[in-house]
Amino acid sequence: MQVWTKLFAKSPFKPLIKHADVVLNTVETLEKALQAWYACDYEGMREFAIEVDRLEDVADRIKEEIRDSLSSKLMMAVAREDVLIYLHMQDKVADAAEDTAKWLLVKKPDCVPTEAKDIILEMGMESIKAAKLVHEAIVQMDRVIESGFTEGEIKREYEIIRQIESVEKEIDGLDTKLMQLVFENADSMSWGDGFYILNIARTLSNISDKAKDAAERIRLMMNK
Amino acid sequence: MAWAIGANDAANSMSTAVGAKAITPKQAVIIAGLLEFTGAYFFGKSVTETIRKGILDPTMITDPMVLVYGSVAALLAATIWLIIATKFGLPVSTTHSIIGGIAGYGIVYAGTAIVNWGKMGQVVLSWILSPIIGAIMAYLIFKAFTKSIFERKDPVRSARIWSPFWIGLAFVVIGTMFYIKVLHGKDLKTGVLMYGIPLGIIVFVVTYLLIKLRFPSSDPFIGVEAIFKKAQVVTSGYVALAHGANDVANAIGPVAAVYAVATMGLGGMQVPVPKWILAMGGLGIAVGVATYGYKVMETVGKKITELTNTRGFTIDFSAATVVLAASWLGLPISTTHTVVGAVIGIGLARGVKAINKDIVRDIIISWFVTVPVAGLISAAIFKLLMIVG
């Protein structure tokens, strides 16, 4: 009976995981770019940064596809608005990674003090942690639905959300540390160098900010 | 008519198994075709009511030719409506279609007084009751299912213990249903004690041992799905068998009436059905499955990814339980409607990820128009036959 094909509309959850895969890939590529940047390998960094840009485009395309398929005519396990806002936040994680890549490209990294570089690299690694956790969170959300919203699976989801929040806090701390460092070295640093470092830091911390927003949205999906 | 039943309904019996990827569409066609034929030929009623379910008052039909023309009109009308519904992918009840067809010609022939409105009221009631009870049952079974397995501290251990229980319980229902629907038994107690419970215990023990021997995975989700995947093949097969045994009457009942008039020159309330007519009906259903049903199941197999094995099993289990309880209470319940209700019930338990609301609305509308539309088509055909004849 054809009705079975029509009765079950395409659920957005598997495509959301597909989108999360690309987002994670984007952030992982950014980390490679940061490592090349750390090693002052501008050409290597450039290649990775361009790849980040391409991956962000792929994420955008998947996002559009999901949006187009999510009509209000669906009865879903979670509210449509929450799914759409979640998707927006998840996509913002890739956007933030792309912004960082753009900032990395604007100048050669030889002027950055090692201490600042260390902090930035650490921020990058933490960002990957956040992106990985977002990926884990949406995969877990799928399991929450598979299980028919059972306590155990919801608990596991809350644990991932808590970890995302803690990573975000960690990055915030590193961000503050970097700001202090830049201002402490203001005399030995040009205005442009300081601006460059701070913007890399800002866009990097944006990754975990958006990851946290996405996690918040998942929390809402479970509460309704 | 039998072809249309095969195309519309029989594909339905296997669709949860195909949708949940328990079997391929090709396998489904072979299994459904064989079981539908077996059900229709070996277990189809050898005596069938010519004026199905007492919709018309037989004392008001004095001319046997009216019965012949009327039966042909009702059959054609039901077939036309079923084909239209199948084309639009709407799961309408074949029983309701034929009832509409019969009422249609009856009204044209002798006015509204010939129709047993009490019976018709029951039919209308079944439109409303079937999906609601199906939804409630599926909701409860799905919740009980998740509570007993997924919500436990050690879901893998719970799955090992509870899966055989649920499968065994489903087979208690199926065994009893086999007695009532396939063997056309009357006493529910006999069905439960002689068929249901023994079958349930056998299935429980076999499943328990099989799981003990080899649990498919340490992950309860994957493991449980793998177990129910196998159970689902059997439940779907049962649905096909029972469907063949029961619904063949919708196609051959009016044929039997025509046959009775042609051979004996009279038409009664109940007539014996020769085996060859049952075989024809069974063959028609099997051909319907193979020709159109195949296409339907192939699409189902390719497109539905939202129906897991546990959910497919829950739908089969709920539908069987509701139909059984309804037979016991004497309520006119439609299996098709119950199944759709069950799907929605699981959706309400937040177990299905996305259901198309528009399609649900279309299905409900199609249920309400089945009897009147089949009636109107039948009335027109009957009138034409009376003029020509």
The succession of helices and strands of chain A, N to C, reads: HHHEHHHH
Compute the separation of the termini of chain A in Å: 33 Å
Biggest β-sheet strands, sense, barrel of chain B: 2 strands, antiparallel
Helical proportion of chain B, percent range = over 70%
- How is the largest sheet of chain B built, in terms of strand order? 1-2
Number of domains of chain A: 1
Low-pLDDT stretches of chain B:
none
Tell me which CATH architecture of chain A applies here.
Up-down Bundle
* Residue share in β-strands of chain A: under 5%
Interface with most residues: A-B, 30 and 48 residues
CATH topology group of chain A: Methane Monooxygenase Hydroxylase, Chain G, domain 1
* Structural class computed from helices and strand pairing of chain B: mainly alpha
Order of helices and strands of chain B: HHEHHHHHHEHHHEH
Query: From the helix content, strand content and strand pairing of chain A, which structural class follows?
Result: mainly alpha
How many E-type strands of chain A?
A: 1
Sheet with the most strands, sense and barrel status of chain A:
none
Broad CATH class of chain A = Mainly Alpha
Overall 3D form of chain B: elongated
Characterise the protein shown here.
Chain A: Belongs to the UPF0111 family. Chain A: Residues 45-72 form a coiled coil. Chain A: It comes from Thermococcus indicus. Chain A: InterPro entries: DUF47 (IPR002727), PhoU-like_sf (IPR038078), Put_Phosphate_transp_reg (IPR018445). The complex is a heterodimer of chains A (224) and B (389). By secondary structure, chain A is mostly helical. Chain A has a single domain (1-223), classed as Methane Monooxygenase Hydroxylase, Chain G, domain 1 (Up-down Bundle). In chain A, 83% of the residues lie in helices and 1% in strands. In chain A, α2 (13-38) packs antiparallel against α3, α2 runs parallel beside α4 (80-105) and α3 (42-69) runs antiparallel to α4 (80-105). The radius of gyration of chain A is 19 Å and the shape is elongated. With 389 residues, chain B is mostly helical. Chain B contains twelve helices and three strands. Chain B has helices at residues 2-19, 25-43, 64-87, 94-110, 117-148, 155-182, 188-213, 220-264, 275-303, 309-329, 335-348, 357-388, and strands at residues 47-49, 270-272, 354-356. In chain B, α4 (94-110) runs parallel beside α12 (357-388). In chain B, 62% of the residues are buried. The model of chain B has no long low-confidence stretch (mean pLDDT 83). At the A-B interface, α1, β1, α5 and α6 of A face α1, α5, α9, α11 and β3 of B.
